[in-house]
Every structure is written in C-alpha cells, then in structure tokens.
Here is the input.
Amino acid sequence: MRAAVRGGRWTTTTHGLARGYVQASVAILPEKYAFDFLRFCQRNPKPCPLLEVTDPGDPEARMAAPGSDLPGHRLYRDGAFSEEVRSIHNLWCDDHVGVVLGCSLSFDEVLVEAGVRQCHLEQAGGRLAVYRTSIECVPAGVFHGPLVVAMRPIRKRDVVRAVELSARYPIAHGAPVHISDPREIGMENPAKVDWGRYPAPAEDEAPVYWACGVIPQATAMASGVPEMITHSAGHMFVTDPHLSTMAH
Amino acid sequence: MRAAVRGGRWTTTTHGLARGYVQASVAILPEKYAFDFLRFCQRNPKPCPLLEVTDPGDPEARMAAPGSDLPGHRLYRDGAFSEEVRSIHNLWCDDHVGVVLGCSLSFDEVLVEAGVRQCHLEQAGGRLAVYRTSIECVPAGVFHGPLVVAMRPIRKRDVVRAVELSARYPIAHGAPVHISDPREIGMENPAKVDWGRYPAPAEDEAPVYWACGVIPQATAMASGVPEMITHSAGHMFVTDPHLSTMAH
Here is the structure.
C-alpha cells in the first residue's frame, strides 16, 4: 500500500485500505510554529490525537509510518487555502516538522464490525457532515479556532455502544463530544454543513458528534500561519500500529 | 492546600494530601529546549504522561493547577544537580516553559482502595525502589536516556488486578512495563537501587515495575541541558482534575 503511494500508483483516498491499521492525517509546518501547535494538540486531545511528531527537517514518520507518503496534500498560505498538490517534494524545507494525528477512518470499521450501522459508509463517497461548533478549542500561541465535529447518524439503540466503543480509541478521536440536539453546540440548521454532506438521521437514529480531524485545516485558516501543509480529505497515512494495539 | 504551599506554610511532600486528585511533577526549561522535550514526552508516554504545557514565560499551570506552587524544587545545570530550592521566584525567566507530568501518587490510593496491598506505603516514608533499566527511551532532539522504573512488591494473587487498574490511568504512568524477573530489563541486583529504598518482595509477592516520574531528572542529567528545574522527590502539584475524570 505504502509502496504504491510512494511510487505514485495510488493517488486517491485511503478509505477501506489496510483495514484495522490506524490511519492518520498530517500537519506540516515550520519549526517556529511547531511548539505552539504541539501545545494546541496537547490541550485539545479529542480533535488532535498525537500519534507522532517528526524531528525538524525529517520528512519521514519513522515510528508510525516509515516509507510512507500521503496520496494527496493541501497547501495553506497566510491562513488561506492555496492549492491541492500530490507530491510535496519541492515544498519540503529543512525546518519543516510533521505532526501526525490519528483519524477516524480505521475506527469506522470497529463500529461496523460491532454491528453499529453507519449509513453514510453505505452511500457513495462515505462523506460525513462536518460542522464548526460554538465550542472554542483551548488556544495555544498563534493557534485557536472552533472545535470541528463530524456527525454520524447512529441508531438510537446503538448510541450507548457507540460511545463505549469509541471511548476505547482516543487515537481515533475517542468518545463523542455531543449527542442529539445540534443547537446546544451552535448548529441552528444541521442541513447547513461546513464541510461534507448532510445525511439526515432517520426516525430511529440520533445525530452523534465526534471531534473531527479537519481541525488542522481550520486552525491553519484561523491562525493565519504563513505556511501549513495538510493531507487532502480522506488521503491518509496508513500506519504500522494496528488499532487494537492502541485500544484502552 | 495550594494556598498553604503558595504561602510557605507547607514545605514538605504532598503524599496523601487531597486524596483522589491527580498529583503532578514538573520540568521547567528554556523554550529553546521545550519542543525537543515535548517530542520526548510524546514518544515516551508511560514515563512522561503530559498533563499540561504552559505558554512560554507563564509561571502558572493555568489549566491543571491554577494558584499552585511546588513545595520544593531541584535545580540542574549542564546535566548536573546543582541545588535544592524551595522557591524559584528568583530563577524564573521569561522564556521558561513548564511541562506538567502526571505522577503515581494519587494512583497509589486506587490500588489500596481496591484491596491491592502496597507494603511500602505502610512503612516510613513510603519510598519505592527506583532503577535505571536497560530499555532506552525513544530519543528526541537533545533528550535521551534509559527508561526509569519504580518497583512495587505486589501480592501474586493481585498482580492481574494491579495491571487492570493501573492501565485505566495513563496520566499516572498507566500499566506496568514489566513483571517479575528484573534481569530481563537490566537489573542484575535488585537490592542495588538507583534511587529510593529496596522493599524486598515477600514469598507471596512479585516485583512489578512501573515507568517512573524521575525521568525528567534522569534526562536532564543525560542530555546536559544548561538548565532544568524539576520538583523535589514527592513535592508535587495537587491539580484540579480528580483522577476518576481522567480514567480510561
């Protein structure tokens, strides 16, 4: 899988690949901002579960995903989206630090295997509804911004099980941050998403909100750092650790 | 409790105080080394469970322990112990960062309440046997050094329960790193401790080894950083979070 990405033979999303292994997003930024960003992650572990931090100038996630590239990146400059790029070889600098954050892609499998149905995975693209909430992340240095959540419609009879199961995997954002009424966390109209697509909960489903890995992009924009490179949506690292080895 | 420390009316160890609340050690170092040290903690979560990182120049652990001072500090210079000091007001610099790490003091209560006897707590001083092991911590920047462990003699019939219980509290070093034969992790003669005092396990007890919070001192010495201020042994922050709120 990694060789295919590095060799340019896999250039699309990693959803459903290498099932069971932790998938991870990345935020690459100049060392000057890395300490602020690490404090931001430490203060906001649900949206930003730290899996690895590379040494300055080292372009490889040596511990979690050696030999790995991302199949797609997004480049932000001065707080604005600049461009989508496949390779960052010509953008990498000696003072770059890569912050690798666990994501929910592998965890989705755990829910499904436990019989917790996730309708959005059965539909084209598997996209979730993603919102900026009225909850502020704890700021650190230049980094600040709203907590971003992803909503999964979960059958009401499965909600407790979904909380129990996700709580075991802090590396994949852990337990939900909110259940049910979206207005309590600042979304007046749940059909109006900030990213993704709205899968309206059915009669027997409740909306359940988990912290979302789009937070690096959101903070890059909010903080206006001169440069940040992130993964493209769904274009993740497939890492060495199996999710089960990181369960609590 | 905090007011008593800040007012200079409590100047000794915090063992047994404010039972149930997370107690924490601290490593204060110049911002220049803080990003290296944070990566070190991220890579070695068992010995270095991050509870809070202060903004550069801010002498207060605002999130975990506002209004708090330590009742005692140790000062290291160029990798060597320099002196024990009660107050660090005259040592604090604008570029200092405080890294607050969870410790095992509060967790000891959990074991005792669950009926897991800890003989060393019943003896004067409650001191443990602390060893440098042959296991190397994952290095980061200037920081490196051996994993340091604390040994508790645990009744053999309680060992599984002790593992289960401690695994729930990663903020207090989590599950043990080793059980039984000390030679497997580099200690030929367990009576020869590096710190503390050796409580020889009785016939019905096994030695169980947990990662130990003396690691900031050990890395300060191994790395030779020009300056690091740590807590004095047993002189901890008493923090706001109750241990139960940080359980997994």
In short: The interface with chain B takes residues 31, 34-35, 38-39, 42-43, 50, 52-53, 55, 63, 138, 140-141, 167-168, 170, 248 of chain A (CB under 8 Å). Chain A has a mean pLDDT of 91. The CA atoms of residues 118 and 226 of chain A lie 38 Å apart.
